[in-house]
Amino acid sequence: MPVVRFIIVAFPKSHVKINTNIVRYGVPLTIIFPICFTFYLIPALGVCKQRAAPYPFGAIWIYYIDSAFGLRNSFFHLYNLVFWMTVSVIANLLLFYQVRRARSKLIRAQTSGASKKSHTSITITTLAMIAFYVTNGSFLLMYIFYYGTTSYFSYAEIMRPFGNDLQTCVVTWVFYLTHPAFQQRITSILVLLVAATSCVDSYKILMYSNLFGHSHVKMLAAAADVLTDAGHNVTVLMPVMDPMLRNKTSLKSTKNTIFVEAGENVEELMEEMREFLTNLWTADNANPLVMLAKAGDMARVFSEQCKRVMSEPGLIEKLKAENYDLAITEPFDTCAYALFEAMNVRAHVAILSASRFDHVTEVIGQPIAASYVPGTQSTMGDRMTMGERLGNYIQYFFGSYFFTNLGDADFEAAKTIVPIKRSWREVLPEASFILTNQIPLLEFPAPTFDKIVPIGGLSVKTEKKHLKLDEKWSKILGIRKHNVFISFGSNAKSMDMPDEFKKSLLEVFKAMPDTTFIWKYENEKDKIVDHLDNVYLGEWLPQNELLADPRLSVFITHGGLGSVTELAMMGKPAVMIPLFADQGRNGQMLKRHGGATVLHKNDLANPKLVRATLEEVIKNPKYRQNAERLAEMLTNQPTSPKETLVKYVEFAARFGKLPSLDNYGRHQSYIEYFFLDIIAIATVISLTSLYISYRIFRVVLRKIFCSKCSEKKSKKE
Question: Where do transmembrane segments lie in this chain (predicted)?
């Protein structure tokens, strides 16, 4: 137990995983430890004899024969007990401090029930440990002050063996029976002994995380750490598509990693992708044709890296030998599904870093609902005109084609290395669950089914609300009443912004001298704002701390989903300026809640519009009120994304594939899905009925008119 307690204090984030292995093998030893200790002590050090009354509970006194330690066991233990009691009291104080900090974080972060149970178990175990030191400490004091002067000392001595038994046996069992890492339900002594030697309820999980795009890497890293903290053995396989992310994996608790380095061809193609990111400010990324033009380049990058992964010497054999219970990946890169096929994984789960991907929506059979649900790369809201509905459907179609092209390229590349018969369109829908980065309270309402599970906000830590700014930025926020934070993320750099946009922003800064502007600008040496005393540049800025500070008035951002989620949970008004991908959709998603407004990136060239928009958001209290209300709802939402992730992943690892959740609609043709066959039959029947009715009506009319004509004719004759 001292080792376990030391690990808890020294490694507060990963203690569950480490101690799980220690206790797995250590607990059974506690059964035989007292026996071995007693048999070792008697022949080696002396003899035991039963003391006379008043020792009816079997207390013993060891006499040493020719021992350098003295005649009595108690003399030897006197100094030993003082030393270890001092050390242990210090360790317990540190442990209580760690538990108190952990509990305060749990209250703020609303972490999973499993984590709360873990820290409750630690507290109970610590109290049991202290009971041991109280009993032995009481004897120590009695020994010092009352030895030989009162018969009550004899009763105090009885506590010593009970205290020792508490230390060697009971405390370990308390930890074993209360910690959530051990899920067995003990119903009898027999089951208890069997459980002591069995494995804990922990799963081996393989996560495939392609190092491409910070937001994608961050989302999967957060999921890996949550599962690791829950006691599972998680290994993250990371193909290094972007070498700049090689040392920026965002992993904290998870230590088991496998890197597959990028090949020369991949690095060359990635340089072309960086040029594309540099041109984000001027490219018409909302145009589907621009998307199609980049589809070929993206497909080449992903397929080359997929070849590298599948041909990595010994990788597939090594992963097969691990016999993982579950595999996890993001279907942004479908190469993982080729690897899963080659490994013949038992089951897999998909995690989306976005709220939805159009190609995933299509292959799993989720209703598109393009008339009121914006596509992944759409710039519309949910209330669309006829033209916008058409544009939204076109965006969905091209978005699906874009990622479908990537998926096909991945599998074609993989098939040149390993024999794979099926397509990613067949493998992906077999996922036990599709875990999406969406928060229902924030997201556009859309048709869904039980396989799709929202875990939005997983990578957002709500305790950031309690973070404090460093002295430098805190002083800057205190200079003026209004403060504006400007950041366009890690992909689109402000220093690459067209000069026209920069000049426009400088005009806005100059026209608002009563407002402080904090601008994420990647070249602090640039003298672009030297003539302005209300503008502060930074290559890296403490975004979380700035958003958490109540003095921040407005956040101007590109609308990445991570930033939007953090912004929404912090309750700050915003001006959204989307640049590419799902940012337009994210901006409209936040706008519908009333705490943000959206500008087109080309509006940056219009300083009057930018200034008017900023002043409206700053001065109109409805933006802050709506933003704070949304933040309050998100903070108190009924479910926790971390707890949801752990429960659904554990369920998938336990039961494997879940065909009962498969949406049969994905197998239907357009004719079946949209009732075109029934409509056609109904149309034919209706037209036939109309035709028959017409013929009958015509015959009847002819009969009527013909009979009248014949009557008139007969009268004339």
Answer: 22-42, 77-99, 120-146, 673-694
Question: Which superfamily, per CATH, for 204-364+404-439?
Answer: Glycogen Phosphorylase B; (3.40.50.2000)
Q: For residue 714, what pLDDT is reported? A: 65
Listed in order, strand segments (DSSP E) in 423-534 are 434-436, 452-454, 482-487, 515-520
Which of 103-117, 191-205, 688-702 has the highest average model confidence (pLDDT)? Answer: 688-702
User: What is the DSSP secondary-structure string of 315-381?
Assistant: HHHHHHHH--SEEEE-TTSTHHHHHHHHHT-S-EEEEESSS--HHHHHHHT----TTTS--TT----
Instruction: Please state the φ and ψ torsions of residue 256, each to the nearest 5 degrees.
Output: -80, 105
d(CA 491, CA 487): 11
Question: Is the confidence at residue 510, as pLDDT, over 90?
Answer: yes
> Could you tell me the residue ranges of all domains in the chain?
2-196, 204-364+404-439, 462-635, 671-717
Label the pairing between strands 434-436 and 348-352. Answer: parallel
Residue 635 pLDDT exceeds 50: yes
Q: What pLDDT, in 10s, does the model give residues 150-176? A: 555 555 555 555 555 555 556 666 666
pTM: 0.70
* Tokens linked to 527: 């003298």
Greater pLDDT, 336 or 639: 336
Amino acid occupying residue 648: Y
pLDDT of 373 > 80? The answer is yes
The pLDDT, as a whole number, for residue 119 is 65
Name the pLDDT band for 279 (thresholds 50, 70, 90): confident
Q: What is the pLDDT of residue 424?
A: 93
Is there a shared CATH topology between the 204-364+404-439 domain and the 462-635 domain? Answer: yes
CATH entry 3.40.50.2000 includes domain 462-635 = yes
CB 228 within 8 A of CB 14: yes
Q: Sign of torsion, CA 366 367 372 376?
A: positive
Please check whether residue 586 is in contact with residue 576, taking contact to mean a CB–CB distance below 8 angstroms.
yes
How many Cβ atoms are within 10 Å of 627's Cβ, its own excluded?
25
| 437 vs 677: CA distance, rounded Å | 37
- The torsion angles phi and psi of 235, rounded to 5 degrees, stand at -115, 130
d(CA 424, CA 135): 64
Residue 169 has what pLDDT? 56
- SS3 letters for 125-187? HHHHHHHHHHHHHHHHHHHHHHCCCCCHHHHHHHHHHHHHHHHHHHHHHHHHHHCCCCCCCCC
pLDDT above 90 for 467: no
HSE, CB side, 13 Å, CA atoms: give it for residue 158. 12
- How many CB atoms lie under 10 A from the CB of residue 271? 8
Tokens read off for 228: 């690791």
